[in-house]
Predict the 3D structure of the following.
Amino acid sequence: MRKVVPPRPSSHSPALLLTSLAGLLRAWLPKQRWFAGKGRHVTDLALLSVTELHPGCLHLLVSTRHDAAAPVPGDCYQLFLGVRDVLPPPLAHARIGRPSEGPLAGLMVYDALQEPRWASLLLERLRTPGTVGPLRFERDAHTTVPAGLAPRLLDAEQSNSSLVYGDSYILKVFRRVQPGNNPDLEVPWALARQGCTRVPAPVAWFRTSQPQEATLGVLQPFLRDAADGWTLALESLVSGGDFTDEAYELGRATAEVHLALGAAFAINPPTERQNRLLAAGMHERLDATSQSVPALLPYVSGLRAAFDALAVLDAGRPVQRIHGDLHLGQVLRAGPRWFVIDFEGEPARPIAERRRPQSPVRDVAGMLRSFDYAARSRRPWRPEWARRCRDAYCAGYAAEAEWDPRAESELLRAHETDRAVYEVLYEARHRPDWLPVPMAAIARLAERDRTPSGRGPQKPVHSFHSARGG
């Protein structure tokens, strides 16, 4: 194998590197699963930061735009680029291209996270805190990470890149970077200080100070024997089994996390103005989505009723920090115990918005929609499976939190409707074959005489708990 040829020192200049990389990255970025601008061409590209982590491995923050004339800033992405003379066959899938001009002309550029050697060196940076240019590597002083853990890159579809080291730790690398303290570091760290064991505590992390302070990645314990909630739910559906016990315990785990979040961060009483603003935002999203997805138009008036009811609500649950994007794919079950992961929230939304206190009912609504998604992901559809899981989840939540989400009917219906509208837009853009799943919920939620769970009057909180022998 021919040796690695690192770029010359002068090539670290962003302006010079751009002459080599601009064309390659414009073609490569839109093909990555974590790239937010699917289906759109990159019209403008800039290198915001360039750092040599090791000879032959560059860390880049890249800004992209899809409309060069747009007045708003573009998206910022984190890249790890390897540079070699020749790319060995095992790394062929990591290839980005061979520049024909600029300081990297004639060399092979590739995604360095795909190479075990560079992935291992990244862990070493995290094991020994320090700085490299604008990059700052930190870790929990009470935790020691062993050396020599073999890395593997997870290939599951996601908005970031995750490396597992020795089946002991998992490093989430935030591909889309926004200024500020990422909630996926801030929230688990705060929960760990509260003694909450439902969320794996951060072990190490790294940030950048250029062009602004931002979180770049977080290392946490890896639950090697855990299965995610989505997989477990589908297995239940395939086998014809019951999932209510698991849903009940998941409801309890969610409430436990919410209680810990309430202790770690401020809790604020809701106001009529907040409800009006929240409803106005939901109306705006509905308007925009109905313009993009005509199938939604027949249901718009019925859906508005949920938001109108929220707008005149004079009470509701106190607002606090929440998960923000809770569904079956964001929870893991190891043995009898549920864990909650991925507190990043929706990456498309600004970090300031994701850190804003919100009603815990929003998280509950996301999980209720997820049960419905699972039930409708296979044929024949089993709506009764989803209804039982939804009731069990709410009952478990109520048992731990001492309040029942189903009692917040206007708030729950509004949040579930808003989530379904979001799902319609997502599926129409990315997975048209899945569009009937949220559209079935849209049809149900548009009927004003239905309750949020799609059933008649709700049972008392204790009904499910008694039925399961608790």
